Amino acid sequence: MRGVAAWGVMWCLTAVGILQADPLPRSEPEAQGVSSAQIRDFVEAANEKIDTLHSLMVVRHGHVVAEGWWAPEGPAKPHVLHSLSKSFTSTAVGLAVAEGKLSIDDTVLSFFPDDVPETPSDNLKKMRIRDLLTMSTGHQTQPTFNSETPWVKTFLEHPVPHKPGTHFQYNSPATYMCSAIVQKVTGQTVLEYLTPRLFVPLAIETPEWLESPQGVSVGGWGLLLRTEDIAKFGQLYLQRGKWQGKQLVPAEWIEQATSKQVSNGSDPSRDWDQGYGFQFWRCRHGAYRGDGAFGQFCIVLPEQDAVITITADTKDMQAELNVVWEHLLPAFQDGALPANPEELSKLKQALSGLKVPDGHEPNVLRLPGRSRAAESQ
Asked: Is pTM, for the whole model, over 0.85?
């Protein structure tokens, strides 16, 4: 059976000496109303149905009740978030709005007077930050960045055939533009801007983010964080922006960012057709998520007061979410459950000594950006 190399609740993490500064509190699953047996069912189903998982962390009522890593992954190892990075860029925009540095109804062209095309289209003139955030820029296709042409210039020269705000088109370069705008109004990269406002308060240590050739955090991808860092971010959003008694992100922004702002499909069985917010996807079951290529997920379940963090290397992300809904969602109960040492022991045993399958060839997403070649991790 494929699986995780190390199971961690408090006793295991302490034993190997890898607790990071200010970690989330740990608890046995049943004490927080979560079934150990059903978590084990999830791990076994994931090993059978998902190409390759790298890590899992389940947080309930603010406590980590389950966590594990598929070797050679580990709790101290940063993981490339791919497009899960977008949700962090959205947060930077929200903080800049709160500080009065911009409005989401500002036009994109107003920030880049030196890069405006010679004859900008009417649709380009109408494009707002709001449209960047909701992937409704009016593009029919994504702009393609390269190392020769400045990325802002490439974006602004790309055709905008649709009226902004009317046509959903997934668009990583649009998130880059959000990052470039934050840098314009703050004088800092998004990584620098978020460090004292988000990363330090959450005790997220040494985050890394790819940069464009122009020295801008790429925004739409390229952020590297550990599994628990992602879980903390999800918990912050679950708590409506409050952390240890301090409001880090305005609750109003959390509500806007995670609500359905635009429609992106009509298939009730697909988690990619439930609506899109400000760089967050709506999910089935009243949940929302940040996600990235090959199965990077930060799933927030307000109705269950839970956060599920998964890193992976799978080609079928919907299958990954299907296993979550089928096996993890039913694990959450309204009240505390009786202690179940037998099932907890089975869970720990099932996860002991497991690893990424031999011969697995990692999926690789090559995207432009300067820094170490993080896309292959």
From this structure: yes
